[in-house]
Amino acid sequence: MLTKEQCEVILSRCMQSEADFAELFEEDTISEGISMLNGDVEEMNRVVRAGIGIRLYKGVQSVYGYTNELDQNTIFALVDDLKSALGTSNREVTIRLTESVIENHHPIVKNPIEASLEEKVALLKRAYKAAKEADDRIVKVTGSLSSVRQKVQISTSEGKFVKDTRTRVRMPITAFAQDASSMQSGSDSPGASQGLEFFDQTTPESIGKEAARTALVLLEAKDCPSGKMPVVIDNGFGGVIFHEACGHSLEATSVAKNQSVFTGKLNEKIASDCVTAIDDGTIPGAWGSENIDDEGNPQVKRVLIKDGVLQSYMIDRLNARRMHMESTGSGRRQSYKFEPTSRMSNTYIAPGKDSFEDLFAGIQKGLYAKKMGGGSVNPQTGEFNFAVNEGYMIENGKITYPVKGASLIGNGKDILMNIDKVSNNLERAQGMCGSASGSIPVDVGQPAIRVSSITVGGTANE
Amino acid sequence: MNKQKWIDRALELGLESFEIYQSLTSERSVTWYEGKLDTFTTSKVLGTSIRGVYQKKMANMAFEKIEDDQMDAVLQALIEQAKTISSKEEDKIRTPQPFESVHKPTKWVVPDVEQVKEVLKQLESKLKAYDPRILQVNELGYQEASGKRMITNSLGLDVEDEERMQIIMAYVVAGENNDVQVNYEVEVVEDLSTLDLDAFVKKVCDKAIEKLNAASMTSQTLPVIFETEAMTSLFSAFTGLWNGELLYKGISCLKDKWNEKIFSEKITIEDDPRNVEALTIANFDDEGCPTRKKVLVKDGVFVQALHSTKSASCMQTESTGNGFKSGYASTIGVSPMNCCIVPGEKSLQQLEETMKNGLVITDLQGLHAGIDFVTTNFSLQASGYLVKDGKRDRSVTLITVAGNFMDLMKKVEQVGSDLDWSYHQIKSPSIYFKECAVSGE
């Protein structure tokens, strides 16, 4: 990593221009992936990434450059290239940095990057065994263990100099079940901002069994009928509905340029009374947590919606300027190769007062979406879609049979208003979120909720 | 990095063969917003990946900073990795093979930043002035990227190539009667000074305006045309069916369908990394294996899979030159390159006239989630327009199309002629299907 003094020299050079702000983001990351097929280690890859991203602002104009050639000549050439785009000046500026030491809220017990390959392979084998032995119909199991340690150092022309280390582990397992008529797959992929100790609580066996269970259910599933109907979306990854349908539209990236259905709606009612939604980057050990965001601000808990009323957007530094508001510490990026922008961290709907059983009462025909897949949204129109990986029909208030091939589509602003019951069983689950500043780890979450009406796309001929 | 030194030391330490892959990329982009430069991004990144075979097992590592004094520690770690691999499949570093190179005739004219700004400024004005229903220009930008690829190995392979790309993109919002629709277009530009700005503006804006006042439709099964962009999205999601690695692992449903009729006889599929009509070409893959043209599906019959060295070895065949990485740091996988459904003779308009009454799907969303590759079932958010008596009728949005890809491809009525590679590496023309299930209100 560059020394504080080297950063001061580079930042001073940056500010000898028409820029009114400059930032250096340096990164040193080691990531490792071990992949397994049917209990055999198939492939392994270890990658060392190191580079620097430099950003200059002039008002709301931003210029960004990055390189992994960290010699002074290359960095100076990059700075000069950036300055020429904004306008150079001969003013003398000297930047002095003061290091702020931040408290580590996500301590690691067993560092996954330093742990032996044998130890990590043994964890994967446990997951494979549990999945394979779940049922004779499990014919294939694939899985991987990924570990990453990202060290970052952020310095700014305002004198900030701060460092953070983020360590994460994740184990995605997919089981394939086969019977005479079809092959189906089921997956589970928990992860955390923790070391290998994560697998002491979330055991590899539980991951393998969950993947196998889903695949086996799908063997029995019928095609899902289509049409508008009430839908109960279960907890955990069900929170992807809020993430896609509303979360992205609350990011300053789309709000600041009037590209979101929620622009100008602060303090207005945008959801039904039972909805309180939170984005919290501070949850200890959570997959989407960090001590600081990628602009060097301490992570915080943000209440986005309280009892249906919009309280806050998620705002990064540049969009804070555009919106004449404060940053909410939401600037995140995949790596130094991306300019940061406003992103979610761990986003969830807060628990409500209904019991899980209450959600089914009175539904004559509906869908119970137990396990959601991913989805996407267009923040401008609010239109979203996502896949249901494991679903069941609800008939006369009871769960009847499993269905496959369902997807849910709708408009974010409508769906928020149509949530009519929220239960009390909050859970979070892990995902990778792709957007303007790359692919970043996020938690989604919610208790089980009921949406009074949503369009279900299915494959059944009725 | 002294490559020869690394190769010599790798062999001394007991690696049976050893390879160094490097990529050097430079990028520059400019975006424009509300009459001003919005962002400017520039970059230069060198990535190195190494792989080696030890006791017949292949190990991989990648670096962005690597010094010769790390050599022993890195090579020892590579050997330790290889020892941990327990799968029986064999992988190999390739012996060089002679090949003839083809070249794209593209003559890139590199603009300076001022010229880019001027073009973007003009484009923004033209986009805003095109029609009162164009409310906003959300994104407007220019991007250029150049990359160099170098592969050297201990068996004497030493190849390199370079490529370049320049594009402009625009994203506009159209609105009318409380309805808002968007459209995003990308165009490859060899020479910014000869770009037909008005034609680009018309394309971007017309598509956004056409989507306006769209409504859902009732759930039904009806004749459907997947317009070229939508069909390309769907086809791209399923090109893994011909992936030798997924066939070997039994994950592709074509695993026991060799030489069987899997699709309508109207469907022929080709993969040709040397097709100079396409966006980019590769004379060799990321293992240094020469590329060639292959027919994967001939008149509906499955005749050929795509292979890397490893997948070919697992299936006792030869690599097809489709061993590609998804970035310098990734391991070698099997990927199609310049893969297409071979076009027919009728234009989209002629397909619509033949269909008479039905739905044209122009846009599919949620392809990363709404596809089950194993069963080939899909259920996707879609938009498009209805066709009535062979003519375009009202626009349709917030519907889903659902089905099974293998079944759908048996119901082809006609394949369109509109194959335009544009910025794609996988492409399909528009295809008219007998029927498909649509869910709406």
Automatic annotation (TrEMBL), chain A:
Q: Where is the Metalloprotease TldD/E N-terminal domain?
A: 22-83
- Entries under InterPro entries matching the protein: Metalloprtase-TldD/E_C, Metalloprtase-TldD/E_cen_dom, Metalloprtase-TldD/E_N, Peptidase_U62_metallo, TldD, TldD/PmbA_N, TldD/PmbA_sf
Q: Please give the Pfam families that the UniProt record associates with this protein.
A: PmbA_TldD_1st, PmbA_TldD_2nd, PmbA_TldD_3rd
Query: Recorded GO terms, molecular function?
Result: metallopeptidase activity
Sorted keywords for this record are: Hydrolase, Metalloprotease, Protease
**Metalloprotease TldD/E C-terminal domain mapped to chain residues:** 226-458
Q: Name one GO cellular component term.
A: cytosol
Compositional bias of type Polar residues: which residue ranges?
A: 179-192
Q: Which GO terms describe its biological process?
A: proteolysis
Domain Metalloprotease TldD/E central span(s) in chain numbering: 111-219
Q: Where is this region: Disordered?
A: 177-197
By sequence similarity, the record places it as follows: Belongs to the peptidase U62 family.
Q: What is the protein named?
A: Protease TldD
Which species is this record about? Faecalicoccus pleomorphus
Q: Which gene encodes it?
A: tldD
From TrEMBL, chain B:
Signal peptide location in the record? none
The record's section on SUPFAM superfamilies has: Putative modulator of DNA gyrase, PmbA/TldD
In this entry, which stretches build a coiled coil?
none
GO CC annotations?
Answer: cytosol
Q: Locate the Metalloprotease TldD/E central domain: which residues?
A: 111-212
Can you give the residue ranges of the Metalloprotease TldD/E N-terminal domain?
19-82
**Which stretches make up the Metalloprotease TldD/E C-terminal domain?**
220-440
Biological processes annotated in GO: proteolysis
Q: Its Gene Ontology molecular function terms?
A: metallopeptidase activity
Pfam families referenced in this protein's UniProt entry, alphabetically? PmbA_TldD_1st, PmbA_TldD_2nd, PmbA_TldD_3rd
Similarity-based family:
Belongs to the peptidase U62 family.
| Protein's name according to its UniProt entry | Peptidase PmbA
Instruction: List the source organism.
Output: Faecalicoccus pleomorphus
